[in-house]
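Bumping my old thread because nobody answered last time. Still need a sequence for this structure:
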């Protein structure tokens, strides 16, 4: 009669897996499937439970790193990424120690910080190195 429990457990974990975007319960479903097969051969319940635990853990250890590599989630890039490498004009002097600085990039005003910590005067041209949050990290051109 344990086979009903194991079958229900396999079904539950597969349903959970179907409704999640990442692999979260497929390994435990595999462990429950092995326990289900053992129950069909009338193997003792304690052996079924041990097999369920051991197979679930083994599947996680062996296949999860591979699955993470294959199913790697891609980064979502924003349109702001296209600004990297572009030239901007400093509108407010950039001084990292005072936490001030602004640049005009394509008609938009951005908060800016110096990449190397060097002060950059108003009116100078800079190149966008990267974006950190809502700040442009820039270097003198």
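Sorry it took so long. Here it is:
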């Amino acid at each position: 009669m344990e086979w009903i429990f194991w079958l229900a457990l396999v079904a539950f974990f597969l349903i959970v897996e179907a409704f999640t975007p990442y692999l979260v319960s497929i390994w435990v479903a595999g462990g429950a499937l092995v326990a289900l097969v053992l129950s069909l051969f009338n193997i003792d319940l304690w052996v079924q439970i041990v097999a369920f635990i051991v197979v679930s853990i083994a599947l996680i250890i062996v296949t999860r790193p591979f699955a993470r590599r294959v199913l790697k989630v891609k980064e979502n890039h924003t349109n702001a990424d296209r600004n990297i490498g572009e030239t901007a004009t400093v509108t407010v002097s950039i001084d990292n120690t005072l936490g001030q600085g602004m640049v005009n990039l394509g008609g938009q005003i951005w908060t800016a910080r110096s990449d190397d910590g060097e002060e950059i005067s108003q009116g100078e041209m800079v190149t966008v190195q990267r974006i950190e949050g809502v700040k442009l990290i820039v270097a003198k051109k």
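The longest helix spans residues 45-70. Let me know if any region looks off to you.
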